[in-house]
Design goal:
The chain is an all-beta fold. The chain has strands spanning 11-12, 15-16, 25-27, 30-40, 46-56, 62-72, 86-91, 97-106, 109-115. Strand 4 (30-40) and strand 5 form a beta hairpin. It is globular, with a radius of gyration of 15 Å.
């Protein structure tokens, strides 16, 4: 079974991002980028997906890398229908956080916040 590609909601400098992936964003000569890695079990089946955000300076040195989400997979199902894709990646209006939204997000589900200064995760608020 195949799935539809994610509908990207990211806007950079007022321009919607084309394609099927969010793009890195930058501020003050620091580049923030998203990545994910699929983990395999002992028999080679994909069993989980780890999602990261990485901050890199202008010289290419990694300042920090944070795993902001992990999703367990059912090894009996196809991988492509279980993967989680970010659809928006932006600076929060407060200026101190990154906001990452994954497909099918809601106010308190699949929305992740990471602190710009050190990559620390901001706990979810359910208020």
């Amino acid at each position: 079974m195949s799935r539809q590609p994610p509908r990207i909601e990211q806007v950079i400098d007022g321009v919607p991002v084309p394609g099927w992936r969010v793009q890195p964003i930058s501020r003050d000569d620091i580049l923030y980028a998203l990545s994910s890695v699929n983990r395999e079990n002992e028999v080679g089946n994909i069993c989980a997906q780890d999602c990261f955000v990485t901050a890199t300076d202008a010289k290419g040195a990694v300042l920090w890398k944070t795993r902001y989400a992990t999703f367990a997979f059912n090894t009996m199902l196809e991988t492509d229908v279980q993967e989680h894709f970010p659809v928006d990646f932006a600076f929060h209006e407060n200026g101190i956080e990154l906001v990452i939204k994954h497909e099918y997000y809601s106010k308190n589900n699949r929305v992740y916040r990471v602190m710009l200064a050190d990559g620390g995760e901001k706990p979810k608020s359910f208020s």
